[in-house]
Amino acid sequence: MIFVDTAAFYALADAADPNHAAARATLEQLRIADAALVTHEYVLVEATALIQRRLGLTALRQFVDGLLPVIEVIWVDAHLHAEAREALLAAGRREVSLVDWTSFLLMRRLGIAQAFTFDADFAAEGFEVIAAH
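Given the sequence above, the corresponding structure tokens read:
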């Protein structure tokens, strides 16, 4: 199981993103390997907002119709949200968001070791970041 983060979703959606080619190559490798891809609802909210604001509704429709059907979405419950909020406040690291803390905790809860992302915070938290270069 591979966790997919906002950074990967955005790089896939934006052809001008510096990580676009690597994101497309990684996604192709994951599809060939028939990897199970998962994310959570906060990542979807974050990615949707970025794509809509920066790239427009056509790009958002492509994201929703073209990519989301192959991703399992895990819904954040009240307990996970509270844990992530507490982790955010306890860490005292301004640059790591609530969305990221939710991702880290969910990945640990589900035993997911790999993340498809371009966000270095995942590696700093001990996860294997997968992305073709």
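The chain has one domain: 2-130. Try to locate this feature in the token string yourself.
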